[in-house]
Amino acid sequence: MTGARRGAWRDFRRRLAALIRKEFRQLLRDRSNLLIGIGLPIALILIFGYGLSLDVRDARLAVALEDASPAAYETVAGLEGSTYMSTTVVRSLAAARRLMDEHRVDALLYLPADFARRAAAGDARVQLLLQGGDPTRSAAIRGYVEGALAQGEQKRRDRQGAAAGSGVVAVERMWFNAANDSTWYLVPGLIVLIMTLVGTFLTALVMAREWERGTLESLFVTPVRPGEVLLAKIVPYFAVGLVGLGMCLAAARLLFDVPIQGSLSVLLAASMLYMVVSLGIGLLISAFTRNQFLASQVAILASFMPSLMLSGFVFDLRNVPPAVQVVGHLLPATYFMELVKTLFLAGTYWPIVLKDCAILALYAVALLALARAVTRKRLD
Amino acid sequence: MIDYLYRLANLCRKEFLAVLKDPANRVILIAPVILQTLLFGYGATFDLNDVPYAVLDQSRGELSMRLLARLDGTGRFHRVATLHSPARIADLIDAGDALLVLHFAADFDSRLSSRGSAPLQVLLDGRNSTTAGNAAAQIREVVANFNATLPGVASPPVTLETRAWFNPNLETRWNILPGLIASLSMIQVMMLAALSVAREREQGTFDQLLVTPVSPSQIMIGKALPAIVIGLLQSALVMLISIHWFDVPMAGAWPALAVGLLVFTVAVVGVGLSISALSANMQQAMLYTFVLLVPLVLLSGLATPVRNMPEAFQIATHANPLRFAIDLVRRVYLEGAPLEQVWRDFIPMVCVAALTLPLAAWLFRNRLA
Amino acid sequence: MSADEILAVDARGVGKRFADPATRRQLAALDDVDVRVAHGALTALVGPDGAGKTTFLRLVAGLMRPDRGELSVLGLDVTRQPQAVQDRISYMPQRFGLYEDLSVQENLDLYADLHALPLPVRRERFARLLEMTDLERFTRRPAGKLSGGMKQKLGLACTLVRSPELLLLDEPTVGVDPLSRRELWEIVQRLVTQERLSVLLATSYMDEAERCAQVHVLHEGRVLASGSPAEIAAHARGLCHDAEPPPGQPPRLLQARLLDDDAAIVDAVPHGGRVHFILRGATGPAELGLPARTLRPVAEKLEDGFMVLLRARSGERPAEAARAMPEGSGAAAAGEDAPVIEVRDLVRRFGDFVAVDKTSFSVRRGEIFGLLGPNGAGKTTTFRMLCGLLPPSGGQARVAGLDLRSARAQARGRIGYVSQKFALYANLTVEENLRFFGGAYGLRGAALRQRMQAVLAQFDLRGHQAQPAGQLPGGVKQRLAMAVGLLHEPDILFLDEPTSGADPLARRGFWRRITALASAGTTVVVTTHFMEEAEYCDRIVIQDAGRLLALGTPEQVRRQAGETAQRRLDMEQAFIAIVERARAARDTTEPTP
């Protein structure tokens, strides 16, 4: 009895090894697979690391200075010398508006001709016009202008030796991201994106190809079990996912200097878990569609786009309406995203690690079981 | 001439039928566009409307209470915890329960009343630096308003009046939705064009078509027109949702927008047809399109502004028609810019179209072998 | 014969239904099927397209579940224990799923591993399979780069890496040339005799079914007849004759005349320069009005029995089909004017591979001209150059008096083309396809409507107009493809393997239409793997390795192959002889392959 079982185990191993060997060979020979599995992740790393940034740079401000008094000059003096803002001073509002209309500046600060006179009376108004097309940039400029004006005010007051205090001064300290650099959270998010790409998109496509080309029909009438076919798909693409993960980690440390505060082994373990979840989704999609075109569309719509937009990668889930939050919280990517960001930027904070890993493990088990249940050796 | 037009119409009708007869195709051309517009319209926002925060108030004075009351009064801040010692700060932020923690030192009240100024510590969760920056700005605003009420603090002689053009509340949604008008249709139009010839090649119908007297350029135009029409309809759909569902007002003129989107869609179809002519089968066409689409969308300024990118990337994006289409749509839609203000956006799009369409035609003719 | 206690396959009252995607109605693919397959022998399932052959094999393989009846395979209930059955059988689907990126050797290794074949056994087995399939030289080549025939052979080799207890083959030789077909059959037959392999085979080739011990004739999901080939053939006993055509006339004219005589004749087919026909039971051969000395009774074959069985039921009436065709006078066939196709020193190279090497021939108006050759001989390349789909590397090809290189568009307006694979828009209806291609050929308005009505009638497509082309049965698809090719009344019709995979009944109807077209003055150029079909042609060429080996009437070609008055050859024998002779000569002059 044990002999029979040992024989069955040996056959299983042998079949699995043969199928995995086949998968690896196909993977390495089909250039389009490598393009998606390796080429695209590299491109994404470079784009996310260097190309994308939510940090406002190169903001352009026009100052319409119709008042040539020293007081007016002093007020705007605080605007000069910023690394991310360039200021152009013009003499008339009309000229400044033209710059705005032509989109050569992002904002217009208007000091009218009676500025100095009214400032002396303590009743001066300055107008700031912003381009609404780019709200992030506009908000940043507003904050900056406010700060600069307050600074000028402070200087003036110090010089006059006024006794009045400046009230509450908010002293901000940014935790986890001292440099306040969006690369710090974009690059960890990239890990999620790349693993979804390899696990779901590529795997769904490759498995759907087998259904479409009829290779499974021949394979099914052999001693192969459906579970072995699935397992053989999982192993190589799991490996490709790990290659992507490795590239991301290396890029994060070596190219972008993003620190990894948490434990590397926890990060690796969690990533592997998510990889299995992602593969499960891919296999499930292909088992239902059995067609490459549909599989690719469903994979993009059901997993790639939402991971990009709704998992809190770029946009924070806190900001969205409840209905969208619910959708976001149904996605396994959301939990992995939270986990990766925490491990990268905050450290190994066990309550989050355990909660998210448990959820991911549940997804993994459920998805694999479902994929196994719908992949049967049947054509009808 | 009439003969030529008749043949074109015949090709176009066939193309429409081939695409629209399949119920799965009809769903795939409409449903994702609507779904994504709604999802991203709601989901893709940097606007912070709900900030969970915690307080460690060691001064327990009247002034700190007043500042906190003001904060809670905004409706955008809600307190998740009131701490009694600094020890739990790390916990709260690590777990993501609080986005920020306000720390009033023990001498806060006394310093503020005696010296007229006192520091307030704001500890922020920087895992998402944009959200954190946003929250910090809101705290600063509340603090500034609070300062204005303090008797000991001189009111600033200068008041800043801010007015944002075209987007009075500086809502991200107003920025994202016009961007989606161009991007969502591009994703599918390029795929449609890329698959069109590849599908015929794979199913063998391309040979059957080539033995008829229609010329390769006729075939190409016959493939391009339906894709263009479908793309424009998708754009119109996104725009309608944007105007009527999300109430983002359309400031510009319809014809200007239509002309801009037409040129853009032609360029996209040109790229798609070139991919199609280069790929041997549908799978290749699909993968090449996907690999091309990802950087095109990411580097278009849809989610992150082009001007934030390094110089080299900015130069490279000149080959990306989506970048200029998004710019054009935003300016026409939000700002009501007339064509003479956005004509520069046309140059790169026209260049892409002028390059890819002849390329696709040439490839059709020369890849017959 | 102890193994016979358990049958290899025992199907009793098996039924299987599918939902029709268009109407959502349930259609019976198999209905009350009883089939028994004995051990150690070949059993064939024959029947027209859509008879349910593939469905039955899939049921046996456990890939589908029967709705009704009992099906036991190797003594096991396949519905309950599909895996136990799959562990013991081998199955070669119609389209064998080779991994195209993997080499020949790697494909074989994969299947050997899956069947847990021990290494020593494997080495010996591979050597034998590779030798039998003649693939030794290509073990490192990716499967995707093999020709169609070689792929089929590799599929069979993968199926046979171990000796199964039951081998299922689903149309293993469709699209395979006669030489490769013969090799495939030698492999199977050797395994049956040496290892007492049990084989269940689905085929539409009657000569293959004739090699089997048992034959089951399937029609519309039901078993029409079961028995040995001789028993099936017996349905035509005493009815088979052959006749010699009048001197100087191609046999197809007589064949067409006989086939049209629906009341008296079941079937007629040209064979070896004569016309083989089956009489209806009540008719005597004398009533046909043929000179008695040209007639002689012949022994019935399986195909004859099959035709008698099927013609009793099938709706397809070749004679009716032909009546709707614009019949011209037979005299038009004689080439009275200049050739419509002229090919001189035509060359096509792909890199340094010469696919077509200095080929010259000409085709006269109204001729039926056949291009024959093994897989990869250069037929399709020649064909594609003639249709303007491929520019030649050298030489001249004038089609309908126009040089293809300078006037491809004009020349295209005068040709019709029916490709090997179904190449119409699958999700467009029959009518939409016709309207589109009519428009593409410049037809419109009343002219288009009139031509559409004409081809709908000619090809018996009425009633199918609103159906999507992709959902038509295979035979109707074939007729639609022909209708599209003839919509603009071309001077020349090109047909690439039009009858590949078609059953004898459908082929009869097809050829009857072709002969009618030719007599109306349309020139027909056709490639085929059925050598007997060369008998319908006025002239044929045989190509191999890009070179033209023979050119002439079927009779001339047979004589070139060594036919004498004593030793009659059929076209298949003649073809094999000519190709093998040429290959032997080439191998001695050019020692490197």
TrEMBL record, chain A:
Q: Which GO terms describe its molecular function?
A: ABC-type transporter activity
What PROSITE patterns does the annotation carry? ABC_TM2
One Pfam family this sequence matches: ABC2_membrane_3
Q: Where are the transmembrane segments?
A: 34-52, 184-208, 229-252, 264-286, 293-315, 349-371
Indicate the segments forming the ABC transmembrane type-2 domain, all copies.
126-378
Localisation:
Cell membrane
Predominant localisation class: membrane
Q: Which UniProt keywords apply?
A: Cell membrane, Membrane, Transmembrane, Transmembrane helix, Transport
Look up and give the membrane topology term: Multi-pass membrane protein
Q: Which GO terms describe its cellular component?
A: plasma membrane
The family this protein is said to belong to: Belongs to the ABC-2 integral membrane protein family.
What name does the UniProt record give this protein?
Answer: ABC transmembrane type-2 domain-containing protein
Organism per entry? Azotobacter vinelandii CA6
Automatic annotation (TrEMBL), chain B:
> Which UniProt keywords are present, listed alphabetically?
Cell membrane, Membrane, Transmembrane, Transmembrane helix, Transport
The scientific name of the source species is Azotobacter vinelandii (strain DJ / ATCC BAA-1303)
The residue ranges of the ABC transmembrane type-2 domain are 142-367
Q: Which parts pass through the membrane? A: 27-46, 176-198, 224-246, 252-273, 285-303, 346-364
Q: What's the chief localization of this chain? A: membrane
Family membership: Belongs to the ABC-2 integral membrane protein family.
Q: Where in the cell is it found?
A: Cell membrane
**PROSITE patterns annotated for this entry?**
ABC_TM2
GO terms of molecular function: ABC-type transporter activity
Pfam families xref list = ABC2_membrane_3
Provide the topology term for how it sits in the membrane. Multi-pass membrane protein
The entry's protein name is ABC-2 type transport system permease protein
Gene Ontology cellular-component terms for this entry are: plasma membrane
Automatic annotation (TrEMBL), chain C:
The protein's matches in InterPro entries, at most eight in alphabetical order, are given as:
AAA+_ATPase, ABC_transporter-like_ATP-bd, ABC_transporter-like_CS, P-loop_NTPase
Top-level division of the source organism's lineage = Bacteria
**Pfam family name, one:** ABC_tran
Q: Does the keyword Transmembrane helix apply?
A: no
Q: Where is the ABC transporter domain?
A: 9-245, 341-570
Protein's organism: Azotobacter vinelandii (strain DJ / ATCC BAA-1303)
**What protein am I looking at?**
ABC transporter, ATP binding component
Q: Name one GO molecular function term.
A: ATP binding
User: Which Gene3D superfamilies would you find in this protein's record?
Assistant: P-loop containing nucleotide triphosphate hydrolases
Establish whether keyword ATP-binding is in the entry. Answer: yes
The family database entries (SUPFAM superfamilies) matched by this protein are listed as: P-loop containing nucleoside triphosphate hydrolases (SSF52540)
**Keywords linked to the UniProt accession:** ATP-binding, Nucleotide-binding
